Amino acid sequence: MSGSLALAASIAGMERADLTALLERRWVPNPAAVRDPLSLALELLRPDSITRALETLDRSGIRALLALAREVSPAPVSVPEREEAETSVLAIGLAGIASQPGGSTRPHAEPVPLDEVADQLRTLLDSPDARERLERDVPHPSRTASDAPAAAAWFGAAQTTTQRAAAALRALALEPVKRNRRGGISQTGVKALAEALRTGQEQAERVVELLRGAGLIHGAVSAAHGDRFAISPDGIAWLRLPHAERWLVLARALAARISGPLSAALRIAEGALGTAAGEVLPIEFPLLPEARLADARVLADAAEDLGFTVDGALTPIASALLDPDSAPLPGEPLSLVRAALPPIAPGVYVQPDLSIIVPGPLAPDDEAALFGVADVEQLGVASSLRVTPPSLARALESGVGIAEARALLERLSLTGIPQPLDFLLTDVESKHGSVIVFAGTGRTRIRVADPAVGDAMLVDRALLHLQLQRDPASLAYVLLSRLRPEHVLAALVDARYAAIAGSDPDAAAESPAGSGPAAAGPAAADPGPADPAADASADVGPGHRSEPDAGAILGAPDRTVTDLVDRVFAGAEQPGSGEWTRRIELAIREKRAIEITAAAGSDVRTFRLLPASLSGGRLRASDQTAGVERTLPVSAITGVEILD
Amino acid sequence: MTLGPLIVQSDQTVLLEVAHPDAEEARHALAVFAELERAPEHIHTYRITRLGLWNARAAGHTDAEILDTLNRYAKFPVPSGVAGEISDTMQRYGRLTIERIADGDRAGELVLRSDEPMILREVSSAKKIAPLLGNRIDELTFPVEAWARGELKQQLVARGWPAEDLAGYTPGDPHEIELAEDGWQMRDYQRAAVEKFHEGGSGVVVLPCGAGKTIVGAGAMAAVGAKTLILVTNAVSARQWRSELLRRTSLTEDEIGEYSGQVKEVKPVTIATYQILTSRRKGEYAHLSLLDAHDWGLIVYDEVHLLPAPVFKLTAELQARRRIGLTATLVREDGREGDVFSLIGPKRYDAAWKDIEAQGFIAPAACFEIRVELPESERLEYAVAEDQDRYRIAASATVKQRVAREIIAKHPDESVLVIGQYIDQLESMAEALGAPLITGQTPVDEREELFEAFRSGRDRILVVSKVANFSVDLPDASVAIQISGSFGSRQEEAQRLGRLLRPKSNGATASFYTIVTRDTVDQDFAQNRQRFLAEQGYAYTITNAE
């Protein structure tokens, strides 16, 4: 027998706050179809909606449903426990109450099972894994927040992951990475980021999730990069924050993701997030799918990476962030974090092997400048960078001059500039601009200062694919290629020519009017470096694709919830033809008798009918008492009650 | 935060701030369990590895001591993951032992034991370990055949349960060997290395190039006092060992045999090359009988980081004999450090080269890179060349001859080695410099003659190919000019530099030059070498040729 009426009766009897809470937890497949309690009940009894609700139902709720459905519960439960569980399943629309004649509901009515829910629960419990999880006892937490090691132990992880997050943002600002079809980061993107962060791919993915959760990166579609993850405006702002603030942003975003079942599991595990995700969650929520369990484990790993937990247990600062009311520490989180993290490092060590050791956090501006002239080798409490010819070439391309780089290193270095680094800086500076690649009219142009170098390029086996030709029209030594400037530049750098991207130094003298990058054909796009901020803002436009929203899975967004509640309440207070029509249709589908109240002027009559069809605004039914067929206009109906 | 000299990173690297007042103490404490990876001027990088921790455990250190060291010297709190990993790793060592049953029916039998049945169950059910064990004697004991002792240790290390080998050694045929400390004395660190080895029974001694590893070998032979088989990298090295043993010990010509491609002598002390030991005829090792030719009481493995893979296999069957490995580095380019640990033994002694240099036992060295331009005609040849020919063309730039002459002129009273990779280049360089040339084709006797002429000062300049890379003792070389190399090999760089590190009679600093052709692959490879040398802590200067 359908549970629609029982659920509709339950919904109709709910206070506004209760209905709002229900809708925040339940997925409504088609919100537009909701007009009144019955239509909402029909939506909530769709199989997908029930499955989602059951998946996040705890073991006591499942037992209560089994008991209601008169199915054997794997373990006996006490009366108060059962009553509490019944109330909770009622509250989330997984049980109903017996409907009363006239559609009224009794306060504190006994819950009744819903067939649709019972069927779905049976199907889910057919899985041996789910049944086994339901039968096991919730593990006692082996480690709790009170076992957390010394408060200082979290900061190493905090510092390392904050550094990695910053490095990932810088990498994404330089080159956004592709998204896969599911909206996640592509495999090549993961590899590229893992390389940039000098870490494993799993850790790189967790860093991306942290950044994504904090809104520091976003999926974006742009003409230049296609569908990619790029740094968001918030990400650009985050890079300007000091380290303590950076950490706090990430930690707050992570804390916000600890909700629903995981939050409940965390309470049972007494603050041991690792235990909650790995041990408690699958037992306390036996129907939670493996993908959700895996997500929780990844979240616990990310928390450990971030120093939110140490050895799986929440740190005092994390506890304070999750539950500010019961924070075990006095003071507000930012000052606590600032006090725990090391101060700004006094400088860096620049070594003869061209490595730079950064023994702690730097001021954001110094950090940005230093990472702009050196490659990352290791990120951690102390970070290790290395100045290389490509890193300096990159700095030059981004507009940082060698003199500026030298001044930066001199200012930050605790140990001066070693001779090999001085030589490298001078060498790069002397070669800078000797080979310039730029877009010309339909062709990429390479201006070479030394003709001997140009002659070597023309015959260089490593450059044959560029099909270089001397430009006979140019007074300067200029070579032409049909390939795009970025390909030409990459090939020249690979072949150890000191090439940089730039613009035509003789453009005014040589270029015919209308030529230049803007007029260049498709084979010669502007090779100039992308401005991350400009790119990010350009990406946020009509082409922006919305992210899959975890909130949408658990419940409708707030505005939709309020709207739905309003409609249901309005429908319940003034039931009209829509409500009667849905009840009649339900009775026809289930071949059930109904009691109809119809009015014609002052004549109000009640009929006991078996409905046959509803069309053209008319109900056709057989009157079981009179033994005749009746046809009634729906507009005359003032009440419909489905009979058992 | 203690503001100490160490920063312990979550990836198990440890940074040491050299200028910190406590750096020296911290360095000594770290050396017990961490491997030095890089030692540039200001910050040294160590890595805490499983093998390093097991080496420390084998030497009697505990995880609590190691954590105490880190906590005492760390600038910031030690990451909890690192502390956990150290404890977990160290507690794995010695929970399995290989022993010999002392009495009863099975007296003398070799067994694998543990007080923890769970561990024994885990390892005995492993696919690669099960065939190495006999039928279980009781819950805590499995019999082990003698032949399986080495392979079992290898497999247990690979599985993360290194066994402590307490089964002892066969004494071997006794043979009296004494050090003849006549006009020289063993240095303290050499004596300490011998003592540590002898206490442990077998294992590896790590000393920098030029620190006198041969003398440690001789000391170990004297301490064991038994017939000894010495395995070395090549015939020239074999001759060097022979000459050192004659000079430093009571051994006579009649007691020392050479077993190499040229000579096949088996005497109470036999020096054999790895190559001859691993040479095959019709698929079989042709000279395996050497291993049983005597009841050897000691086997010496020279340059153990170069031990060829087949020798590991043969060594696995020699576990009843005392073994000493000598090397400048535990790092192997093939990554088989675990096999050295399980088959030769744990590290018994390690001395930092900076300590030895400070004591004046190895010469300080300065490194220079001189960049030259490829002449225009050669640049075109380079440009049109196939990838595989480019390094040869760049490395053989003719302009290097002029630069080499200029360098030699700057060191008028010093002996100079010119080292290269390509025979054509070396021949024309030798001709240009008017110096003798040694290559792989030079007969051993002629090589020795030329080395001797160089040693005695008759020839001030010697041009050599890569044959001079290993175990050639050239005491008076104080300048080396590297004109080409094996594509930037770090090992080769270490060996070549090692030729200069013998202490100079006048205490002078050795000079190590590399001539590099700029903007070519030669420069790429030079970058690897530069990084390596700077990481080793040598002063490094780059200049353009005039």
> Total strand count of chain A, please?
21
Q: Any low-confidence stretches of chain A, pLDDT <50, length ≥5?
A: 508-557
Specify the number of helices of chain A: 29
Strand order within the widest beta sheet of chain B: 11-12-10-15-16-9-17
The largest β sheet of chain B comes out as: 7 strands, parallel
Report the helical percentage of chain B: 25-40%
- In the sheet with the most strands of chain A, the strands line up as 14-15-13-12-16
User: What percentage of amino acids of chain A are in beta strands?
Assistant: 5-15%
Proportion of beta-strand residues of chain B: 15-25%
Question: In angstroms, what is the radius of gyration of chain A?
Answer: 34 Å
CA-CA gap between termini of chain A: 9 Å
Mean pLDDT of chain A: 82
Q: SSE layout and pairings?
A:
The complex is a heterodimer of chains A (644) and B (546).
Chain A: H1 4-12, H2 16-25, H3 37-44, H4 47-55, H5 59-68, H6 79-91, E1 96-97, E2 111-112, H7 115-125, H8 128-135, H9 155-174, E3 177-178, H10 187-197, H11 201-213, E4 217-222, E5 226-231, H12 233-238, H13 243-257, H14 260-268, H15 273-284, H16 290-306, E6 309-310, E7 313-314, H17 316-322, H18 333-340, E8 349-350, E9 355-358, H19 364-373, E10 375-378, E11 383-386, H20 389-397, H21 402-412, H22 419-431, E12 435-439, E13 444-448, H23 451-459, E14 469-470, E15 478-481, H24 485-494, E16 499-501, H25 507-510, H26 532-539, H27 550-554, H28 558-573, H29 577-590, E17 594-600, E18 603-615, E19 618-623, E20 628-633, E21 637-642
Parallel strand pairs in A: 12-16
Antiparallel strand pairs in A: 1-2, 3-5, 4-5, 6-7, 8-9, 9-11, 10-11, 12-13, 13-15, 14-15, 17-18, 17-21, 18-19, 19-20
Helix pairs in contact in A: 1-3, 2-28, 4-7, 5-6, 9-11, 10-11, 11-16, 13-16, 13-18, 14-15, 15-16, 19-21, 21-22
Chain B: E1 6-8, E2 13-17, H1 23-30, E3 34-38, E4 43-48, H2 50-58, H3 63-73, H4 80-92, E5 96-100, E6 110-113, H5 117-124, E7 141-144, H6 149-158, E8 163-165, H7 188-200, E9 203-206, H8 213-224, E10 228-232, H9 235-248, E11 256-259, E12 269-273, H10 274-278, E13 280-281, E14 284-285, H11 289-292, E15 298-301, H12 309-316, E16 322-327, H13 337-344, E17 347-350, H14 353-358, E18 365-372, H15 376-384, H16 387-395, H17 399-410, E19 415-419, H18 423-433, E20 437-438, H19 444-456, E21 461-464, E22 477-482, H20 490-498, E23 510-517, H21 521-535, E24 539-544
Parallel strand pairs in B: 5-8, 9-16, 9-17, 10-12, 10-15, 11-12, 15-16, 18-23, 18-24, 19-21, 19-22, 20-21, 22-23
Antiparallel strand pairs in B: 1-2, 2-4, 3-4, 5-6, 6-7, 13-14
Helix pairs in contact in B: 2-4, 3-4, 6-13, 7-8, 15-16
